[in-house]
Write a structure and sequence with these properties.
The complex is a heterodimer of chains A (about 1000) and B (about 290).
Chain A (H helix, E strand, L loop, with lengths): L2 E7 L6 H14 L5 E11 L4 H12 L5 E4 L9 E7 L6 H14 L8 E11 L5 H12 L5 E7 L26 E2 L4 H10 L9 H7 L3 H9 L5 E2 H11 L1 H4 L6 E6 L5 E5 L1 H16 L3 E3 L6 E4 L4 E9 L1 H6 L1 H17 L6 E11 L14 H17 L5 E8 L8 E11 L1 E2 L2 E2 L10 E6 L31 H16 L5 E4 L4 H13 L2 E4 L12 H6 L5 E6 L4 H10 L4 E7 L4 E6 L2 E7 H5 L6 E6 L2 H4 L11 H9 L8 H6 L8 E3 L2 E2 L5 E2 L3 E3 L8 E7 L9 H18 L8 E7 L13 H22 L3 E7 L3 E5 L5 E5 L3 E10 L16 E5 L10 H6 L11 H16 L5 E4 L4 H13 L3 E4 L9 H6 L6 E5 L4 H7 L5 E7 L4 E6 L2 E7 H10 L6
Parallel strand pairs in A: 9-26, 14-15, 21-24, 32-33, 39-42
Antiparallel strand pairs in A: 1-2, 1-3, 2-5, 4-5, 4-6, 7-8, 9-10, 11-12, 12-13, 13-16, 14-16, 17-18, 19-22, 19-23, 20-22, 21-23, 24-25, 27-30, 28-29, 30-31, 31-36, 32-36, 34-35, 37-40, 37-41, 38-40, 39-41, 42-43
Helix pairs in contact in A: 10-23, 12-13, 14-17, 20-29, 22-23
Chain B lengths: L17 E6 L6 H10 L3 E6 H6 L9 E4 L13 H11 L2 H7 L3 E5 L1 H9 L15 E3 L7 E9 L12 E8 L3 E3 L2 H9 L3 E6 L21 E5 L5 E4 L15 H10 L12 H13 L3
Parallel strand pairs in B: 1-2, 1-3, 3-4, 4-11
Antiparallel strand pairs in B: 5-8, 6-7, 6-9, 9-10, 10-11
Helix pairs in contact in B: 3-5
Classes of the chains: A alpha+beta (about 1000), B alpha/beta (about 290).
Chain lengths: ~1000, ~290
């Protein structure tokens, strides 16, 4: 019989989780409550004796000093209660671990059907708690109805004997698995099928697919395996393989670009090939350190004689927008699987994040599914649990607020791995799916998770229906799997490895089958979370924490033994062949039989119209005088959401595990300021460093996406140089997040403009990568950053996100003790500005604060910049620099303040040489690219200035002994304040968040 | 291997004591802990927890057991609880015999949580194996990564000899040291409170955030058992083995540069814990 075990903190102990809920309820809803306590509930669906139950309670689940527990309701004094538990089928890691612990304690396995389900009971005391308020807390703070259920109890309704009762989110599917077949008589039939099954097949693909199944040769060979008409497994496979997600149809599309001003027309065929692949191949020929690029799950660069590094960036926008915590958690844990599935498998050494959300204090009329504040809290927490519980340091990240991300948030996640150059004598970066190798699925089991992604969210859920479309990642299971796979790799067992992510087995096996030349899959062998899945569901399920590995058949026993040591499930589910066919069987009967060559055939490219109107024709410069109160202005700038301190996020992330974080994400003594880039020591026994930078500048997209992308890449490069990176080795990762670029007169009337924005950004990517010689080791595009939001009167608004490029860059430091940080080091040091300041305020934080976009967007001049970038690198190598810092969003004024805050040392500078023809606010806040702020010891002044002879170098002043921060322009003092005042402004907004 | 001790008191200790560093099931500071022991002169071996639990690996082949940081079994039922349960079920009293035989145990972060749930700490005389103290969620309500100042109290703890003030990072969500008053008193009286959170000047943190980052009672960051051979602490000594792991090392590097000298990577304060253990084991008849 099932029982409910309740566990809570002893009343005299604080309840930190409850206190957090109390704080959030105050911040979110203005609700003042005296106390919130949280009980953990375990629904034990086990057939055990009372003695066993009691022993489990005391010996396993209750700490004698701090906790109380019982099988009767513990709740006594409260005014309202909310129970929150998972819906059936949602991954409950704590429940699974509890069951494992019970089995260990009892010394025997529990019978099939036994289950442990965890949930929480929140108890509220004090405050005006009617059922409406409780329901608001439940819906908008504690539970997400996509994955969780909640129940509300008023005190008067509380039964002290039964409490919340017994709630068992068992999955029971009363369904006999079947394979459906479809006679594709007409295009209309296929079109209708695509609509019904959410296949999202393109119109142009329909006749090609239909005709394939009518070819006589195909029919004959299908008949030999007992197949006639197309099956659901096959159509799902083709839909996955042809989806924008897997095939990148947008980036491989044909863009008809027209400049509306000049009338110039041109066609950009396949931006991926033209602007990413071709430049990368060209650069890779010159850069022997490029080990592997453009084919594997992630790109590989050489680190030293023994190791390579692997890097990948991903975005997980749509899932995070629905369920923030689960979306970002599956995102970060998912991107870890890319380096793990690259070459013969890389060890994870770093994680990255980037969040773009609506304003945290948004109070406007639009009603996104999750308020940006809750959404942000959720995505932060997802990366926290994903990173921290995986033992991977989260070394760098970004947060950007803009109203346009109300439509859909962006959640960027990145991963860096370390891969041996050779594994048992074979190149570590190589892998090959070979005919004869057996295929194993390792890690988690398969359920109805993530089938068809978000389309399922519109389907009606009934009790017992697994809530599959939104998932909760399980870093614990994946950590075990990673430990296991790295040992299997070092034993030389792995011939091929890839991750099982979007598209599930269909995608992982389909793609690897292309490499091997054929595959045979036995779907009934796939371990399931629960029975009743149709074969097509097993085939496309996106259940997390899985990898697909190929090994030689003779190594099966060895491999499985190793898996057992690590408590990882590994199951043979098929083998690679040389038949040229993808054959999927279920219970011995073929349910898919497709020629692999079919997907290589000419599917027509997607076509897009792109229309561009130059910024000068669309926008104008504001007419604006110089502020009289420069001090007030700077303080206001430092308080801006996109400028101010976000230390609270960084502190939640373990950024030091593995012991290699040489330059951590926060730098400084007085205040903790974000550094330019992280520097890692991937091998503790070597003094070589790996620098990783991240940049994004979506605001410039309002003016011209070419310059948005160009400045972003330049920024990522400067961030590397500022910490001591080298121009000879810079690798890049491009992650595009774009609104829908397909014109539709009603649904997307500005689609042609957005398509032109995409074309221009890819041009900038090509130009800048060629100029700076950056091969793109990895990248990803994520389209459809649009949302439909109800307004104040229930009317729907389409909100499209700003076109955004996350650019990640990597460089090497030969000697990490020469790494540089941005903080001034000593009083009396000379402060220099390197690079020209132009009147480029377009898209700047300065304009944004005043409500303008402007048109004078910063521009990048790589050939000019590179001359002194090289000198700067030389100055660093020659140990002439005491500090170095790039100038980014906010401009010189903001970044002078940050360097001073990090040092706890004031300064006095004269901005006369900076943009001398322009008003002071241009000198202070223009965001011109190509600039650095460096400080130099007086003893190095002559050598340093000589080195930069003829280059744009401006001595601005010096570091002070005290905390006075003084900026002059000629004889005028623009502002004079103290570091404490600056710090208060910079930390005010989010300083009380933890 | 429950209570058998095939090799007790018979081993002739070589110059390199053997340290067992546990890994697997969500532990994740195993590599850098192994590195720290190796740098201190030990022969450090990563051993999967399942190998120790199944008996494939014998504790008695090692002179020191280190349980490093991480999230064992996901930590969802109280940090360190499940790993402690599994070790207790598998090893029985062998761990206590291991300690009684003069060998050492070090628990860092999640490892500390495991040791208190095993009852190896505080390990009062006559109450060995009892769970008397706990590490509960931080008062700040969240996981926190920050460097802290620590004051080492005089004690017989062999890991902390020679240390007074030092800096290490804390990286945990459940690090608030809690015990009933009488247990705290007994810990203090017995000299078992060995490391406390402090201000930069070495004054008591006095429970104040962020100097005391989690609300630990009496600012306790680490305790040892009565023998001084078992230490558990929340801060990470293995994360301060070299000077470039310290958050403001570039300032130090610049002062060397100005003296015209290349910056030498120096030993970090955390290395002392490991060196002390190795030196003790070298001198001890185990």
């Amino acid at each position: 019989m099932a029982v409910r075990l309740e566990i809570g903190w002893r009343p005299e102990l604080p309840d930190a989780e409850g206190e957090t809920v109390r704080r959030q309820a105050r911040e979110y809803f203005g609700l003042e409550m005296d106390m919130v306590r949280v009980l953990r509930l375990l629904m034990l669906d086990l057939d055990l004796s009372q003695e066993d139950m009691e022993a489990i309670r005391t010996e396993v689940f209750t700490h004698p000093v701090t906790q109380v527990s019982g099988f009767k309701p513990l709740a006594r004094d409260f005014d309202g209660a909310i129970w929150v538990g998972f819906r059936p089928g949602v991954r409950d890691t704590a429940g699974a671990v509890a069951q494992e612990a019970i089995e260990a304690y009892l010394g025997r396995s529990l019978p099939a059907g036994a289950g442990v389900y965890t949930s929480k009971l929140f108890l509220f005391s004090g405050g005006p708690l009617d059922s409406g308020k409780l329901s608001q807390i439940a819906r908008e703070l504690l539970a997400n109805d996509l994955i969780q259920e909640f129940r509300i109890f008023a005190r008067k309704d509380w039964d002290h004997e039964t409490g919340v009762g017994i709630i068992l989110p068992r999955v029971h599917l009363d369904h006999t698995p079947t394979v459906a077949v479809f006679e594709l008589e007409s295009l209309e039939a296929l079109r209708e099928l695509s609509r019904q099954r959410h296949l999202a097949l393109r119109e142009a693909d329909l006749p090609i697919i239909r005709d394939y199944f009518k070819r006589p040769a195909v029919l004959a060979r299908r008949a030999a395996v007992g197949l006639k008409a197309a099956t659901d497994v096959e159509l799902e496979y083709l839909a996955q393989a042809r989806s924008d997600h897997c095939n990148h149809n947008t980036f491989r599309g044909r863009f008809h670009y027209r400049d509306l001003e000049s009338g110039e027309r041109l066609v950009l065929d396949n931006p991926f090939k033209a602007c990413i692949e071709a430049p990368t191949r060209e650069i890779a020929r010159k850069k022997p350190w490029v080990v592997s690029v453009l084919w594997d799950n992630a790109g590989v660069g050489q680190f030293d004689a023994d190791f390579s590094y692997v890097i990948k960036g991903e975005t997980h926008n749509s899932p995070s927008n629905l369920e923030a915590y689960g979306g970002s958690l599956t995102g970060i844990v998912g991107v870890y699987r890319d380096p793990l599935g690259t070459g013969k498998g890389a060890k994870l050494i770093a994680g990255l994040y980037g969040f773009c959300v609506g304003p945290r204090d948004y109070a406007g009329p639009l009603k996104p599914r999750l308020h940006p504040r809750r959404l942000l809290d959720g995505v932060i927490e997802g990366v926290k649990d994903g990173g921290n519980k995986s033992g991977v340091p989260t070394i760098n990240g970004a947060l950007y607020f803009d109203d346009t991300y109300l439509g859909k948030c962006l959640v960027f996640v990145g991963a860096v791995g370390l891969l041996p150059r050779t594994v048992k004598g074979e190149p570590g970066a190589q892998k090959a799916a070979r005919p004869g190798d057996i295929i194993l699925m390792c890690g988690g089991r398969v359920g109805k998770d993530g089938i068809h992604g978000v389309t399922a969210s519109s389907e009606v859920a009934s009790p017992g229906t697994p809530a599959g479309h939104v998932q909760i990642g399980d870093p614990y299971t994946q950590k075990n799997m990673q430990d296991f796979l790295l040992e299997a790799r070092d034993q030389g067992l792995i011939t091929f490895i890839t991750d099982c992510g979007g598209g599930g087995l269909s995608s992982a096996l389909g793609e690897s089958a292309q490499k091997a030349g054929g595959i045979e899959v036995w779907l009934e062998q796939v371990p399931l979370k629960y029975q009743g899945l149709d074969p097509w569901e097993i085939w496309v399920s996106e259940s997390q924490e899985r990898m697909v590995v190929a090994i030689r058949p003779e190594n099966e026993a060895f491999f499985k033994n190793l898996a057992r040591k690590h408590a990882v499930e590994a199951t043979v589910i098929g083998r690679y062949t040389d038949t040229g066919v993808l054959q999927v069987n279920y219970q011995g009967q073929a349910c898919a039989y497709i020629d692999l060559s079919f997907l290589e055939e000419e599917f027509p490219p997607w076509e897009f119209d792109a229309e561009w109107l130059s910024a000068a024709r669309r926008l104008s410069e504001p007419v604006l005088g110089e502020p009289a109160d420069h001090q007030g202005f700077l303080l206001e700038m430092l308080d801006r959401p996109n400028i101010c301190s976000r230390e609270w996020i960084t502190r939640q992330y373990d950024h030091e595990v593995q012991g290699g974080s040489v330059l951590k994400p926060l730098i400084g003594r007085q205040a903790q300021v974000p550094g330019d880039a992280a520097v890692l020591r991937p091998r503790l026994d070597s003094s070589r460093g790996l620098a990783v930078s991240l940049a994004l500048n979506p605001a410039y997209s309002r003016i011209d996406t070419y310059h948005m992308a160009a400045v972003t890449i330049d920024e990522a490069v400067r961030r590397l140089l500022a910490v001591g990176g080298s121009l000879t080795h810079i690798a890049g990762v491009d992650n595009f997040c774009w609104p829908n670029v397909e014109y539709d007169p009603k649904g997307n009337p500005d689609g042609r403009y957005k398509a032109a924005q995409l074309v221009r950004a890819t041009w900038a990517l090509r130009d800048l990568c060629l100029a700076y010689e950056i091969p793109l080791l990895s990248g990803k595009d994520s389209m459809y950053v649009d949302g439909l939001l109800p307004g104040a009167f229930g009317e729907l608004h389409r909100v499209s996100g700003l076109p955004t490029l996350f650019f990640t860059a990597v460089s090497l430091l030969e000697e990490l003790t020469r790494a540089l940080t941005l903080d001034w080091k000593a009083p009396g040091d000379l402060i220099y500005l390197v690079g020209q300041t132009h009147p480029e305020l377009g898209g700047s934080e300065f304009y944004e604060m005043l409500g303008y976009a402007g048109v004078s967007v910063p521009q990048v001049h790589p050939q000019e910049f590179l001359v002194y970038y090289r000198l700067l690198e030389e100055a660093g190598r020659g140990q002439l620099l005491a500090s170095a810092h790039g100038l980014y969003r906010g401009g010189l004024g903001v970044h002078l303040a940050l360097a001073s805050l990090a040092a706890g040392l004031g300064l006095e500078v004269d901005l006369s040489p900076v943009a001398p023809e322009s008003p002071a606010h241009v000198a202070l806040y223009a965001e011109s690219a190509g600039r650095f702020l460096v400080s130099v010891a007086p003893s190095n002044q002559a050598r340093f200035e000589k080195l930069f002879n003829g280059q744009p170098l401006y001595r601005l002043g010096e570091v002070r002994r005290d905390k006075t921060f003084k900026i002059n322009r000629g004889r005028h003092t623009l502002l004079e304040t103290s570091l404490n005042t600056l710090q208060a402004a910079w930390q005010r907004r989010f300083g009380n968040l933890i | 291997m429950k209570t058998e001790n095939p090799k007790t008191k018979t081993e002739n200790l070589s110059a390199r004591p053997r340290a067992l560093v546990l890994y697997g099931y969500g532990l994740n500071c195993d590599y850098e802990t192994q590195f720290a022991f190796a740098r201190a002169g030990a022969e450090a071996v990563r051993v999967h927890a399942s190998e120790l639990i199944s008996g494939q690996v014998s504790l008695w082949d090692y002179h020191l057991l280190a349980v490093p940081g991480g999230f064992s079994w996901g930590d969802d039922h109280g940090a360190g609880v499940i790993l402690a349960l599994r070790l207790k079920l598998a090893l029985g009293t062998a761990l206590r015999e291991f300690i009684a035989a003069g060998r050492l145990v070090l628990g860092i972060c999640n490892g500390f949580q495991v040791l208190v749930n095993l009852g190896l700490l505080p390990g009062f005389k006559g109450r060995e194996g009892e769970r008397l103290v706990a590490l509960i969620p931080n008062d700040c309500g969240n996981f926190r990564d920050a460097w802290v100042h620590l004051k080492v109290l005089p004690s017989n703890c062999l890991f902390t000899q020679g240390l007074e003030l030092l800096e290490l990072p804390i990286r945990h969500g459940e690090g608030k040291f809690y015990a009933p008053r009488e247990v705290l008193q007994e810990l203090a009286d017995g000299g078992q409170i060995v490391i406390k959170y402090a201000t930069a000047a070495g004054e008591a943190a006095g429970g104040k955030f962020p100097e005391n980052p989690n609300g630990s009672l009496m600012d306790i960051a680490g305790i040892c058992d009565a023998s001084g051979r078992v230490l558990g602490l929340m801060p990470h000594p293995e994360a301060h083995i070299t000077s470039t792991q310290h958050p403001t090392w570039t300032l130090d590097a610049e002062t060397w540069r100005r003296r015209g000298e290349p910056y030498p990577e120096k030993a970090g304060a955390g290395l002392t814990f490991f060196k002390n253990a190795v030196e003790y084991l070298r001198g001890a008849v185990v």
